[in-house]
Amino acid sequence: MNDHPSIAIPNLLYAYAMRFDDGDFDGAAALFDKGCLLTGKHRIEGRAAITAMWAGWVKTYDGKPRTRHITTNPIIAVDADGQGASCQSQWTVIQAAPGFPLQIVASGRYCDRFARDGAGWHFKTREFIQIDLVGDWSAHTLQPLG
Questions:
Q1: Which of 96, 75, 93 is nearest to 135 (CA)?
Q2: Would you list the domain boundaries of the chain?
Q3: Which of 74, 86, 98, 103 has the fewest C-beta atoms under 10 angstroms from its C-beta?
Q4: pTM score of the predicted model
Q5: How many CA atoms lie within 13 A of 138 on its CB side?
Q6: Phi first, then psi: what are they for 19, rounded to 5°?
Q7: pLDDT value for 3
Q8: Domain 5-134: which topology?
Q9: Is 133 helix (H, G, I), strand (E, B) or coil?
Q10: Mean pLDDT of residues grouped by 10 in the chain (146 residues)?
C-alpha cells in the first residue's frame, strides 16, 4: 500500500466505508485499533466496544446493512512534520433495505485525525461532527436518532 498521505488517507476513508457496508463491523473497528471514535460527548475506544456500538445501532439483513457509505470532498491537511494529518469530509448513506426503495438515509460530516508510525498511516480519531440532512432512518437503525 502506498504510504504517501495523498493515497493512504483516502484509502483509509474508503476502507472504512467498504468494511461497514459489507457488514464487517469488526474489520471497520480494526481501523481504529490505534485510535477512537468521538460522537457527541462520547469517546469509544477499542475494537470490541466499537463493534458492539455498531451492532447495537445498525440493522442488518443477512449480516449486511444494505448500505453504501459514500465519502466525498475530503480536505486533507498534513502536519508540518509529516507524521500527522487532519481531514474533513462529507458522508452520505444510501440504503436498499427489503420493502424500501433505494434511498438516501442521511448525510453529514466527519472530522478525522491521522497519525503515521512505522506501520504507516492510521486513524487517530474520527469525530462524527454533524448530521446535515436526514431521510427515513427506519430501515437503518435499531434506535431512534437523538
A1: 93
A2: 5-134
A3: 98
A4: 0.93
A5: 5
A6: -65, -45
A7: 84
A8: Nuclear Transport Factor 2; Chain: A, (3.10.450)
A9: strand
A10: 86 98 98 96 96 96 97 98 98 97 96 97 96 93 74
